[in-house]
Amino acid sequence: MTAAPASVRPGGRPAGPYAAVVLPSLDRLVDELRARGFAVVGPVARNGVIRFQEIASADELPAGRGDEQDAGRYRLTERGDGLVFGYAASPDSAKRYTHPPRETLFRFRDGVPEEPEREAPKTALIGVRACDLAALAVQDRVFLGGRHPDPAYLARRRALFLVAVNCAVPGGTCFCASMGTGPKATAWYDLALTELSEPHRFVAEVGSERGAEVLAALDSPPATDDDLAAAERVSAEAAGRMGRAVDLDGVKERVAAAHSSPRWAEVASRCLTCANCTMVCPTCFCTTVEDATDLGDGTAERVERWDSCFTLGFTELGGAPVRGSGAARYRQWLTHKFSTWVDQFGGYGCVGCGRCVTWCPAGIDITEELRRLP
After folding, report:
1. Are residues 211 and 255 in the same domain?
2. Which of 239, 268, 286 is the last residue of a domain?
3. Is residue 76 within 8 Å of 48, Cβ to Cβ?
4. What is the pLDDT of residues 258-288, one digit of tens each?
5. What are 71-97's pLDDT values in tens digits?
6. Which helix (H) or strand (E) holds 238?
7. pTM across the whole model
8. Rounded to whole angstroms, how far apart are CA atoms 295 and 177?
């Protein structure tokens, strides 16, 4: 996976061999982050799904909740234990906080242009998975790696304090292990937690100077060799329980060579082109702009919002869609993720989180489609 630009990595460098401590709970961590001026955002069980939202206390985290994920299926479950992070990837990812779904670019008021300040609030994200950290590195490459870096993205990225969680419970649609992006976080975090049971505790590893400062303020005991060994076992066992897998050997060339495959028409017969897959994808970055005028107060504004290569009007030219069929649109998406993205950005556009499989209403499985291509 392509590295993130050093200027936006937590602490200016990837995670390294810093100290590790044991936290009996997350209460003091949440309190410390709030005391430092961060809006603390974490996973919460809401309306039958795990979503990210601002929390005031660790009591709001989904202790004892798990999930069942398969193609086109998501269900919250009761685990019967106290694990706080005993679930797989939720439909939310860190992308929502670096690349907002909707943002006003500028407006005119009485003919005078105004450029609103693009917000970059101090936000601490608790529960970010290794696949999502890898996705942030991809987004960094997209928004900051070219000749025209996005200053708003950079400001929001630097304002994030990232508390990663090493997965203990991969979902039925996860395949991060085969993509080399998880389940253990290895870079681009401030703190990384591994949840252990018997007794219930968290091994917290530091990945940046500011992470070290926060952890030092908690005055927690250092992790023992047994704690660290138990944390390594959690990640190793999770890697062996992935619900899906992708064979990357020659996949870039194989996908590119399948341009005329009848497989695209077959998958298009099931695809609703609803764009769910791209909306939950942590690396998809396409947007469009909308102009609106309010005749009541004389204002007009231009808004940027997420768009998708699955929508009919995406990249419309000359009054007609560039890709008029569902087959062409699905081919574009999968080919970009596993072939042309490598040419553009030096790595795959997929991190193996499995969200596109879980949240596809037709249950289309990207790992299966890759296997079936000639």
Report:
1. no
2. 239
3. yes
4. 999 999 999 999 999 999 999 999 999 999 9
5. 999 999 999 888 999 999 999 999 999
6. helix 225-239
7. 0.91
8. 54
